[in-house]
Amino acid sequence: MATTDFIAAIELSSSKISGIAGKKNSDGSIQVLAYAREDASSFIHKGVIYNIDKTAQALTSITNKLESQLNNSIAKVYVGIGGQSLRTVKNAVSRTLEEEGIISQELVDSICDENLEVPLADMSVLDVAPQEYKIDNNLQADPVGVAGQHITGQFLNIVARASLKKNLEHSFEQAKVEIADLLIAPIALANAVLTENEMRSGCALVDFGADTTTISVYKNNILRYLSVLPLGGNTITRDITSLQMEEQDAEKLKLQYGNALYEEEEESETPAVCTTDDGRAIELTTLNNIIEARAEEILANVWNQLQLSGYEDKLFSGVVFTGGGANLKNIEEAFRKQSKIEKIKTMRFVHNTIHGFSDVLAKDGMQNTLLGLLAAGNENCCLQEVKPAQPAGNPTPKPVDMFGNDEALKEQEAAARAAKAQREKEEKERREKERKEREKKEKEKKKGPSWFEKTFNKLSNEIFSDDDMK
């Protein structure tokens, strides 16, 4: 059965392109109807598209797979944008009134427009996170209608390299997939993973991705800071390949034996080892020394970003980890040692209840951003085909007279009808006259020879009879 009401979303990350389609239920849960993914490691690096052709091919494949599962066509999709160059930049715009008055909407709009005119070298503003306005010495979330003489608009511009958005749009254009809306991926993720209480009291969300780690800081339900580190889970995997193995084997060892705080058992007489696919034995101490060193570097950079945000001592709800890299054993304890923050937890699934495809969507946190994009969508993405509906047995409606009120056209139409009727009358009379003439001739033939013909024949017979000729 075809599905005609759904929301579709696509996430482009460094390791994969994922597509999803589903609907939001009235109780806040999400019903997933279709899911597909394609490997993206060869043409997307650190969230940036480097090969538009291959990206377009992957997008086409994703769309076709989703449409096959939905048994319907997709008209548009919600798309998340992220990447290494994504970050926030603070800006302030001030205005002083000649005398104290009421702050108008026009004044606020002009301040917002001036904020967007701030020059950025090779960067473009993707979105603006709403902040407070300072009116005289008071902070206001909504300044319209407040009395004051001096107003300062505080803005947090979300910026990225201009090529990030351009390459993404070109890829979707080439794949002939319409973008319903371009969403900031870390914000969609935070709205899906963090609770309202966590955002209000102060919380940092750390998303450990494949090639990047994203840090988002919230306070009073407002995004205060956003930064992306060019380090992720694949960085650890590539370090493990120094043990002379392929990345695929290194990833398996990391997932199975990796530990951010590994300690050798003192009672063990022989060192613990793990075995690779080719039969080599590697000591767990050697493996985890590599993992621990890189994990320590990543976590140190995360803590440094929290300090740069200025909110490291205002995070009353602590820090929330998510993403595939957050599955590394003891990563929470390792960060406690780095930051001295005690309140740390890992979210491997969004706070909404997921129905459908839960085996691949809610087990390791790798699809939380995709689910966040789906939850952020609010428009039906199904391709609606408009067809004239004609119920069976109902007569076809008569065409509408578009010129019914035009008197000149009415007169022309009446004259044409009268001329047509006159021609039909004359034709009918002509045919009737011809019919009568034919009938008259046929009757005369049936009567036989006339009196004149009979007399003439009789006289002829008498004159030219055989007796007279003798």
From TrEMBL:
Membrane topology: Peripheral membrane protein
Top-level taxon of the source organism: Bacteria
GO BP field: FtsZ-dependent cytokinesis
Composition bias type Basic and acidic residues, residue spans: 421-447
CDD domains from the UniProt entry: ASKHA_NBD_FtsA
GO cellular component, as recorded: cell division site; cytoplasmic side of plasma membrane
Cell location: Cell membrane
Entry keyword set: Cell cycle, Cell division, Cell membrane, Membrane
Coiled-coil stretches noted in the UniProt entry, renumbered to this chain: none
Gene3D superfamilies: 3.30.420.40
Subunit structure comment from the entry: Self-interacts. Interacts with FtsZ.
Function statement: Cell division protein that is involved in the assembly of the Z ring. May serve as a membrane anchor for the Z ring.
Family membership: Belongs to the FtsA/MreB family.
The protein's name: Cell division protein FtsA
Encoding gene (name): ftsA
